[in-house]
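quick q for whoever's on today - can somebody do inverse folding on this one?? i tried earlier but teh output was garbage lol. tokens:
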């Protein structure tokens, strides 16, 4: 089981209103220079937000939603500070109610 950290907001906020693409592109460049594997993903309409254990917390996120998911808690904390109007959380996966959060990316 892995712990994933995320920031979530409306899809329009993350993909149109905020310069998130620029932040993620810079991170990819930096990882490439360091030879580090990518450990973050932009997930549109993430199903894990509907999981019973997250439902109360994520109910405030406007739908359709998007999320940046990572195994790196510090990166998600950076995004929370950078983007400000996002929900920050974490979950364990796979679990009984949350499958692979990255399965839709394949």
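ok took a stab at it. sequence:
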């Amino acid at each position: 089981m892995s712990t994933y950290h995320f920031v979530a907001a409306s899809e329009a906020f993350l993909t149109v209103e905020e310069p998130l693409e620029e932040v993620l592109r810079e991170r990819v460049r930096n990882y490439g220079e360091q030879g580090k594997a990518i450990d973050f993903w932009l997930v549109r309409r993430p199903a894990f937000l509907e999981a019973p254990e997250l439902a109360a917390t994520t109910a405030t996120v406007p739908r359709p939603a998007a999320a940046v998911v990572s195994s790196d808690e510090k990166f998600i904390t950076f995004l929370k500070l950078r983007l400000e109007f996002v929900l920050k959380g974490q979950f364990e996966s796979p679990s009984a109610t949350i499958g692979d959060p990255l399965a839709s990316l394949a």
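fwiw The radius of gyration is 13 Å. also The helical segments are 11-17, 20-34, 52-58, 73-83. so keep that in mind when u check it
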